[in-house]
């Protein structure tokens, strides 16, 4: 760091890169709107998973989800729900950061959104609007869009619309970046913001993960993959990460937003720093569209890469916010990966999964769990993994079954997705 002043060096990491501070956090999940509601519910071990009420589930094997029912969900179109959740989370994060007032955010937008497809109810409505069950014509699409008070049918379904609308609302700089890397997407959005600030391209970034995909088609597709829990009664007991009797994940929805800033710029404007993103690690593989590589190599590599990027060894991590989906294969693979990295010490590192309470929020999961990790650091309390009543003897982890109070300086937050998309983040209270 030759030539840097002491003040500059203070705001750089061990590799000489700008430290990336978090100055704003926003959340919405099935547990509530905002940090306060979510944190209170999470640490109390309350579940947001319940019977689905927004559409009929007769005849379906899975009839539960962590839906956000306290916000308007009409019409039931994934892009519009994703936009609504993203806006709510971003408003809280930007407001807390005290930056970008009056729709003038001084940085770029990186937003993880679900892959957009027309869902079956909308396909049927559009076909009917076109005059029959046959081909859906452009004119029919336009009529259907107009009947729902949208300017153009592209506003309903085209990939990138959510980012464009959020960018317009908050006045972010440059072209907004939309991404979809399966269940690691939310963490990847944060990673892109971190990398842009480290490169000196900007001093701030608005990073969001959002997903409003709980609809009939998505539920049926995941069910056909045998990925979902069928333990519908009671709903709050279905998601049980790392338990021997786990049988699949429960769909959830929501969003989280982080305002990232160059730490020196944040300090200069007097911002309150809530924590730091110290490291990011990403590793992909092409083993299978849904299954993890059986040797666990990509998961292990992503964890190790995040630690190396943070300049830490395994001993520098106080707790793990696990991907922990509650599927038989994922939980076993994650435990295998953690054991490979942490060795015998893995049995002494507290591990928790927020998905036990909010379900798997898919594209939003990595961002929501990063936000929860930062709150864990700030409050010195690890939220529990509920429903952990029957430990799996094949998974030798210290799973946090009830909220645990302890000093937490650094959290490893894992996000592993279909198709071998793996992203890990290291969040910290102080620079490494």
From TrEMBL:
Gene3D superfamilies listed in its UniProt record: 3.40.47.10
Annotated InterPro entries: Beta-ketoacyl_synthase, Ketoacyl_synth_AS, Ketoacyl_synth_C, Ketoacyl_synth_N, PKS_Beta-ketoAc_synthase_dom, Thiolase-like
Domain Ketosynthase family 3 (KS3), first and last residues per copy: 17-429
Coiled-coil zones: none
Entry keyword annotation includes Transferase: yes
Entry annotated with the keyword Transferase: yes
PROSITE patterns the UniProt entry points to: KS3_1 (PS00606), KS3_2 (PS52004)
Metabolic or biological pathway: Lipid metabolism; fatty acid biosynthesis
Family listed: Belongs to the thiolase-like superfamily. Beta-ketoacyl-ACP synthases family.
Protein's name in the database: 3-oxoacyl-[acyl-carrier-protein] synthase 2
